[in-house]
Amino acid sequence: MKDSYKQKGLRKKLVLELFKKGIRNEKVLNAINIIPRHLFLHKDFENFAYIDKPFPIGEDQTISQPYTVAFQTEKLEIKSGDKILEIGSGSGYQTSILVSLNADVYSIERIYNLFKSSKKILSSINLMPKKIIWGDGYLGLVEEAPFDKILIAAACNEIPIRLLRQLKIGGKMIIPIGNQKKQIMNLITRISKNKIKKMELGNFLFVPMLKDKI
Ligand code: SAH
C-alpha cells in the first residue's frame, strides 16, 4: 500500500483518539490503523486525512468522520463472512473497513462520479467489495437479500421498509434517522418477520439520502 511512516504515525494517533472517544472493538481499531484514509481524499487534502472530521469529496458529499465509521462498524458487530449491504459508498472508506474485516460487502452509491472513483481506489488497494453498484440505495439489492447487516451512511426520515425487508431475521441495521439538522443513530434488530427492536444511540450528522430518481 502507498503509505509513509508519517501517515502510519498519524493513523496510530487517530486510533488512540477513537479509543478515548469510546471505540473498544480491537478489530475495528486495527482496521482504522491499517487503512490508508489519505488515499480516499484528493491529493491536495491528504494532510487532513487523519483528523477525526468529515471532509468534502466533491458532489456535495463528504467522507464520513472516522469516529462515525468506527461507531457504525462496531455497533454492527461484524463477523467474518457476514453479508453486508452498505448504502452510500461515498469515497469508499467505510466500504474498505468492512471488506478488511472479511465481510461480504455489497455497496450502493447514487452519484456516478463517486461510484467510479471509490471503485478505482478500492481496487488499487485490493479491498474490493463483492459488488459495488451505481444505483438507488432505497431499493436495496433484492437479488442478494437477505443480509446479515445493513449499514446506512446517509440520513433518512424514517426506516426504509424495503431495506428492512432485506434484513435477515436476527439481522441488524444501523441507520441515522432525523431531519437535515439533526439525526439520531438507530440500531435496529429484526427479531421476527414483522417485529423489530430499536435502540437509539445518540446524535450524529450525515448528508441526507437523495430521493430523486437517477
Ligand atoms: N461512508 C462514506 C460517506 C458516505 S456520505 C465514506 O466513508 O466516504 C453518504 C453517501 O450516500 C454519499 O456518497 C451520497 O452520494 C450517497 N447517497 C445519498 N443518497 C443515496 C441513495 N439514495 N442511494 C445510494 N447512495 C446515496
Notes on the structure:
- The structure is a single chain.
- The protein is globular, with a radius of gyration of 16 Å.
- It has a single domain, classed as Vaccinia Virus protein VP39 (Rossmann fold, 3-Layer(aba) Sandwich).
- β1 (55-58) and β2 form a beta hairpin.
- It contains 6 helices and 9 strands.
- The strands form 2 sheets. Strands 5-4-3-6-7-8-9 form a 7-stranded mixed beta sheet. A two-stranded antiparallel ribbon has the order 1-2.
- The chain has 214 residues and is of the alpha/beta class.
- The longest helix has 16 residues, at 5-20.
- The N and C termini lie far apart (34 Å).
- Helix content is 29%, strand content 28%.
- The structure holds S-adenosyl-L-homocysteine.
- Residues 61-64, 69, 87-88, 90-91, 93-94, 108-111, 114, 136-138, 153-154, 207, 209-210 line the site of S-adenosyl-L-homocysteine.
- S-adenosyl-L-homocysteine binds next to β2, α4 and β4.
Quick take:
By secondary structure, the chain is α/β, with parallel strands linked by helices. It is 29% helix and 28% strand.
Spell out the blueprint of helices and strands:
Blueprint: H1 5-20, H2 26-34, E1 55-58, E2 61-63, H3 66-75, E3 83-87, H4 93-100, E4 104-109, H5 112-124, E5 131-134, E6 147-152, H6 161-165, E7 167-178, E8 183-192, E9 195-204
S-adenosyl-L-homocysteine is lined by residues 61-64, 69, 87-88, 90-91, 93-94, 108-111, 114, 136-138, 153-154, 207, 209-210.
